[in-house]
Specification:
It is built from 33 helices and no strands. Helix 4 packs parallel to helix 7 and helix 19 packs antiparallel against helix 20. The chain is elongated. The chain starts with a helix and ends in a 5-residue tail after the last helix.
């Protein structure tokens, strides 16, 4: 007997039990279906194909609270697996009944209905819109004001799932008055509730400047910064994500975060955790720095560069290294002062080695190359550039040599050090195409020195000298 036949047999046995005259048997049958459907999508599909959903939806409106909870659990268990299965729940008319359950006197029924609606909405914008059209949002906003913590968590999670897909869907959540109630719960002692609240506010703020400003106007600063010190890793991560989503939009919003002490708080948070929890904080620093010279300087002053350098060196995951590289590039790209702040943290050799490492992911190579280019084009701090002369490939080398060609003509001390350190000798060893930009840079550097010095450090010069010694006929 195939697995499909077994499933059909099980569904055929359970379906009549949903109609049993004994309420306890109905509930147990519904719970059994829910657990089966929850297990994997094949079992969930069998529930749909067994024509069980219409019966559940009908009973959801008619039966007692215990059955309602069990029926909503089945709908959630089916809907979580895929958009197609969630659509099957919508098609059998479940949304209207679930929304009615949001007004039930029993908090457990409201919770079960919120959970099912959130699982349907999370898949895509169309399913989210169906949840909105069924009238769920104002009732979910009422649920986040209820005394029961579990209900508030699930309702906040459902609002987050609706908000994430588009500005229009997020706006419906805002129009129902969600932001003020969510903002009030940022300091709730329950970590799981805080996670959902911060997530919902992030999903609203990410879409547009207007929505981000509405979240900020609910006076989430500076209270949200306390969440960056929370003992719960997900609270930390979601708080950093919320701050990142606000900072992304405009220099003004980033400045507001700086003024509230947000940059220093995020840097501390990045330093206090590891792995993916660090990621939103790392990116937030890059977004702030990208907006303007002053904001990038705020990140430097708050000691963001050494912390990002640690992430770049320490983190084993390529995507986190790539984010750190991107942020460092955003900090260093503004002026020579910014580039120097990054260069003195010994970041350039690390970026170069990651770019050249064959085991680095393509994204990491792209990000490190771009960061190197951004920083090098502004960097006039020659001691930081010199070690790179010996290791850099041609496409990076031209930027390094270009910086030396800008600085050396105007700095006699730097010219002398360049000779002593072996930099001039290294430049003579570079094979550049005639007429290329790299060759122009080399010519500019060579023109800073007497011809005999340049000749002395050119490859083959010592052999030529020895040959002259051998061929020299002394005058006796």
């Amino acid at each position: 007997m195939s697995q499909r036949q077994v499933l059909q047999g099980v569904m055929a046995l359970l379906r009549p039990l949903l109609l049993d005259v004994v309420p306890n048997i109905q509930q147990t049958a519904a719970l059994a279906l829910g657990r089966l459907a929850n297990y994997n999508d094949d079992l969930a599909e069998a529930v749909v194909k067994g024509d069980i959903l219409p019966q559940l939806v009908y009973s959801l409106a008619e039966q007692n609270r215990f059955y309602k909870k069990a029926a909503a659990f089945v709908l959630r268990a089916v809907g979580k697996h895929s958009p197609q299965l969630a659509q099957a729940i919508v098609d059998c008319g479940a949304l209207d009944t679930l929304v009615i359950c949001l007004e039930d006197f029993d908090p457990g029924v409201k919770e079960a209905a919120s959970w099912a609606l959130g699982y349907i909405a999370r898949h895509n914008a169309e399913l989210s819109q169906a949840v909105v059209d069924a009238g769920a949002i104002p009732l979910l906003v009422l649920c986040i004001q209820e005394p029961e913590i579990a209900l508030r968590r699930i309702a906040a999670s459902a609002l987050s799932d609706v908000s994430k897909h588009s500005p229009e869907l997020a706006q419906t959540v805002v129009d129902a008055g969600a932001i003020a109630h969510l903002a009030q719960m940022i300091l709730n002692p329950d970590a799981k509730l805080k996670r959902q609240v911060l997530s919902a506010l992030s999903q609203i703020a990410k879409h547009s400047v207007d929505l981000a400003e509405m979240v900020v106007e609910a006076e989430i600063f500076p209270v949200v910064l306390t969440c960056l010190k929370d003992s719960d890793e997900y609270v930390k991560k979601n708080a950093a994500t919320l701050i990142r989503e606000i900072a992304r939009h405009t220099p003004e919003l980033s400045q507001l975060i700086v003024n509230a002490g947000g940059v220093a708080a995020v840097i501390d948070c990045v330093g206090s955790c590891k792995g993916n929890v660090r990621l939103p904080g790392i990116m937030m620093l890059g977004y702030v720095a990208a907006h303007s010279e002053n904001l990038a300087m705020a990140v430097i002053i708050s000691k963001g560069v050494p912390q990002l350098a640690v992430c770049l060196s320490e983190e084993p995951e390529d995507h986190i290294k790539a984010a750190a590289a991107w942020s460092l590039g955003q900090i260093g790209r503004h002026t020579p002062e910014h580039a120097r702040a990054v260069a003195v943290a010994n970041v350039l050799p690390v970026l170069l080695s990651l770019y050249m490492a064959t085991e680095s992911s393509e994204d990491l190579q792209v990000k490190t190359k771009k960061a190197l280019k951004n920083i090098l084009q502004k960097c006039t701090h020659l001691p930081a550039l010199e070690p790179l002369l010996h290791d850099a490939p041609p496409n990076i080398l031209k930027h390094i040599v270009g910086q030396f060609s800008k600085v050396l003509p105007h700095d006699s001390k730097a010219r002398r050090l360049f000779v002593i350190s072996g930099g001039l000798k290294k430049v003579q060893e570079i094979k550049a195409e005639a007429g290329s930009l790299l060759q122009d840079y080399i010519n500019t550097i060579n023109n800073c020195y007497p011809e005999e010095i340049v000749r002395y450090y050119s490859p083959g010069y010592s052999e030529a000298l020895l040959e002259r010694v051998e061929n020299y006929q002394p005058v006796l």
